[in-house]
Every structure is written in structure tokens, then in C-alpha cells.
Specification:
By secondary structure, the protein is an alpha/beta fold. The protein contains 15 helices and 25 strands. Helix 3 packs across helix 4 and helix 9 packs across helix 10.
């Protein structure tokens, strides 16, 4: 089997390989991928530092052309790359292809942004003096990405970093090296100069920690667990480094008495269970007012009976497997916790057997939950959701906001009054009305509040806030 190596200073290097296993079929080895050492990480940071002066002053047309070429190849290979994504992460093939398309669109967007770099020219309050306000690249950017969106999240971090003239050291999650390697290979062949983009696959305890402890990394963007996010923050403060954190959520989806029942059920099932519930924007707290509660719960139960859990590549599959054995254990542990706390397991929660050996879990729906239970406070990151009964809109809003997280929040209602009030008062970075809490466009800002996020928003024009620094220059006429 071919060893997929790390890219450091424009060269493919590495000899020690690790198997990438398909969670839909543990007999299927997706590929063998090199594991970087601390020395490799050191070389990658040094290469990025050396490449920065020239790349940061490169022409905007060069950056545009490279990003556009990468976008075109990603979109042209969407079925192939989508299949790779589904094999290594466990999303359905439709979701894998859809995520790949989104990655291509992100690169296409930032190819355009490279040609739209803007500044300001202002008069000074002092006579005969002009003022120019411009944005410049930050320097070496460390990028650490999770396993749940193995091509989209790397795209929305790498594309703006390169667009604005930064150099990159990229460490993907160990579980999903395939998509990371593919996207780096595409950019490498698109014409990036040596050292501008460096790939270091491997353990976070080795590669990630070196990146955090390197004074030559000027910025780090991280998506992942709360514990690691805190480590990123602490290490970055020591070096006065910019850092950006996305750390998850416990997102609420509110269903009011006046909601369209079909709309509410489809949105709730989608945002709670699709992608196996392995999205930071998943709604695992479904807050339902008492007038519609029983009808809603019954309708969700019927909807879940029609959900097919099977091999991600199999036609007709709605939900694929959990990503690995460790995550499956975490999910089932939380199901037992929910039972012990007094919630009623109204549907599912069983480990399933299929034609191929994998980590299959039937979606689990709890009722009679309260907002104080652990299953309502802690991020499970699996197809496990709790229904919380409330009296009215005011209690629903208060319950929705009673969480240490604040990424996404949703409501199902036909009331313009309640929809408008909820959009204003939901304590979240993103609010959805009659839509699933998961699913955002590639050209608008992504991010949350409270314990979910720290730093400038990701995606769209807002990405410039993190990947650039502002310079103010004065000139005497």
C-alpha cells in the first residue's frame, strides 16, 4: 500500500505509516498515512517561516490563480473526494460529496477575495498629512482541524490563510488524514511555492504541542475539544500570539405550539441526528412547549422509524456509523447516564449489526429530560437528543439560553413576533428560524459565543479579521 507522506518545505517526507480505517467497514483500510515527529513539526515551522517574506509580498493574481486552480480540481473530483471522505469519516456519500463541493466553493470564494483586498485612504486631522489603513498577513499560521468535517474545515482555514499572504503549518485530526492529504496535494500541484503550505499528520500530543510551544507560529486557528482549546489559549498568551477557537456546543432547538408540525419534525430530526449527530451545530436539546409536546414526540418517533442506519457508501443509507470505537463508547455511556438521571429513552440507543463490521448506533431520543441533566448540559457528539418540556415561549427562551455554550440556536414557529424576538434574544452566534441548527453558507461568518468560540469569526469577509493585521501609515504631503 502506498504511503501518503507529509509535505514539508515542498518535499514529501516520512517513513512511519498508520492505517486509516473505514468506520463503515473496519476491514477496509482507506490508506496508509505518515505520522510526523516533533522534528518534522520543527522543520515545517522553519519552512513556513522561511517562505513567509516572499509569499507575503506575492502578487494578488498569483494567489488568485493558485486558489482558483485548487477550487476547480476539488469540484471536478467531487465524487472521488466525497467517496474518500465518506470512507474515512462515515458520513453518507451524499453528505461527503456535498461537503467536498462546499470546500471547492470556499477556495473559489477566497480566490476572488485575493483580488478584492481593500484598504482606506483618509485625511488626517492635521493639515497636509494623508493616512492609509491597510491589512497585512500575520505570519506563520498553525491550523489544527477536527475529524467531523475533514475537508470543509481545513478549506475554510487554509484558503483565507493563503489568500491574505500567510504561510501555513497544517495538522489534521489523526482519524481523517485522507482528505487532508488530498487537499494539500491539490494545492501543492496548483503551484504553491515551497514552504508556503506544510502538512504534518500525526499525534496532537506530539505535533500539536510543538506548534503551540513554537515562538515562530504567529497565529493558531483551532477547532476541537474544550480541553485542547484551553491549552491553545494558554500557550498562545505566553507568546502574544493570535488565536481563534471553535470548541463545540449544546445547541437548543425550540418548538412552539404554533409551529408547523412537519417543518418542526424535519428540522429537529435533521439537526439532531443526521451526520450521526457529529456536528458542533447539532441540536441535542429539543425544547418543546406543552401544547404541541405529545404530538411532536409521537411524530419524531415515527420519523425515526424510517431512518436507515447503514454503511455510508450504501444506497439508501440516511445515517452512517459513529466515527470510531472510542466515540461509540462515549455515546453509549451518555445513553446510560441519561437513563440513570431519570430521562425516558423513548426511542433507539441500540448498537446495530450490519453486513459490514462498523460502529453503528441507532439514534437515541430521550423524553422527560430536564435542562439540569448531564445529557442536557454536556456535548455528547453523537446521535443522542433530549426533549425538554416547557410551559411557554418565555420558559423556552430561558431554557435555550441556560447553557455554557452559544454556537447555534433554532426555533420552529409561525409567529413573526416570536421569531423576531428569538433572533434578537437567543444567546448564540447563529440563529435559525424553521431550519435545522446545522448548515451554514460558505460566504457568511461562522462562530459562536460563550464557551463555544473565541476570537474573530470564520468564513466570508470576516476571515480577514483573524488572518491579517491592520497597519496605519501617515505621509506628509
Amino acid at each position: 500500500m502506498t504511503l501518503h507522506q507529509n509535505l514539508i518545505a515542498g518535499e514529501w517526507v516520512g517513513s512511519e505509516g498508520v492505517a486509516n480505517i473505514n468506520p463503515s467497514d473496519t476491514n477496509d483500510v482507506v490508506g496508509e498515512y505518515a505520522r510526523a515527529s516533533a522534528e518534522d513539526a520543527n522543520s515545517a515551522v522553519a519552512a513556513a517561516k522561511a517562505a513567509f517574506p516572499e509569499w507575503s509580498r506575492s502578487g494578488i493574481l498569483e494567489r488568485h490563480a493558485i486558489l482558483k486552480k485548487a477550487a476547480d480540481e476539488i469540484l471536478a473530483r467531487k465524487e472521488e473526494l466525497g467517496r474518500l471522505l465518506s470512507r474515512e469519516e462515515g458520513k453518507t456519500l451524499a453528505e461527503g460529496i456535498g461537503e467536498t463541493v462546499r470546500a471547492g466553493q470556499i477556495f473559489e470564494f477566497f480566490a476572488g477575495e485575493a483580488l478584492r483586498l481593500v484598504g482606506e485612504v483618509l485625511p488626517s486631522v492635521r493639515p497636509n498629512i494623508g493616512v492609509e489603513i491597510t491589512r497585512e498577513p500575520v505570519g506563520v499560521v498553525g491550523i489544527i482541524t477536527p475529524w467531523n468535517f475533514p475537508i470543509a474545515i481545513p478549506a475554510w482555514k487554509i484558503a483565507p490563510a493563503l489568500c491574505y499572504g500567510n504561510t501555513v503549518v497544517f495538522k489534521p485530526a489523526e482519524l481523517v488524514p485522507g482528505c487532508a492529504w488530498a487537499i494539500v496535494d491539490i494545492l501543492h500541484r496548483a503551484g504553491l511555492p515551497k514552504g508556503v503550505l506544510n502538512l504534518v499528520m500525526g499525534k496532537g500530543s506530539v505535533v500539536g504541542h510543538f506548534m503551540l510551544d513554537s515562538p515562530d507560529v504567529q497565529a493558531i486557528t483551532f477547532t476541537g475539544s474544550i480541553g485542547t482549546g484551553k491549552r491553545v489559549a494558554a500557550a498562545s498568551i505566553e507568546y502574544n500570539r493570535k488565536f481563534q477557537l471553535e470548541m463545540g456546543g449544546k445547541n437548543p432547538f425550540v418548538v412552539l405550539d404554533d409551529a408547523d408540525l412537519n417543518v418542526a419534525v424535519e428540522a429537529a430530526v435533521n439537526c439532531a441526528f443526521f451526520s450521526t449527530g457529529q456536528r458542533c451545530t447539532t441540536s441535542s436539546r429539543i425544547i418543546v412547549t406543552e401544547g404541541i409536546h405529545d404530538r411532536f414526540v409521537a411524530a419524531v418517533g415515527e420519523r425515526l422509524k424510517a431512518i436507515v442506519v447503514d454503511n455510508a457508501l450504501k444506497a439508501g443509507t440516511h445515517i452512517g456509523p459513529v466515527v470510531d470505537e472510542s466515540q461509540l463508547k462515549q455515546d453509549t455511556d451518555y445513553i446510560e447516564i441519561g437513563k440513570s438521571e431519570g430521562a425516558k429513552l423513548a426511542f433507539g440507543g441500540d448498537i446495530l449489526k450490519r453486513d459490514t463490521p462498523g460502529f453503528y448506533l441507532q439514534p437515541a431520543l430521550f423524553t422527560e429530560a430536564t435542562n439540569q441533566m448531564r445529557i442536557s448540559r454536556e456535548e455528547i457528539f453523537g446521535p443522542v437528543a433530549s426533549v425538554i418540556r416547557v410551559k411557554d415561549y418565555d420558559e423556552a427562551l430561558a431554557t435555550a439560553n441556560d447553557t455554557p455554550f452559544g454556537l447555534s440556536s433554532g426555533i420552529a414557529t409561525t409567529s413573526l413576533k416570536h421569531a423576531t424576538h428569538f433572533k434578537r434574544h437567543a444567546e448564540a452566534g447563529m440563529v435559525m428560524v424553521n431550519l435545522p441548527t446545522a448548515g451554514v453558507d460558505f460566504h457568511v461568518p461562522f462562530g459562536g459565543r460563550k464557551g463555544s468560540s473565541y476570537g474573530p469569526r470564520e468564513q466570508g469577509k470576516f476571515a480577514a479579521e483573524f488572518y491579517t493585521t491592520v497597519k496605519t501609515a501617515y505621509t506628509l504631503a
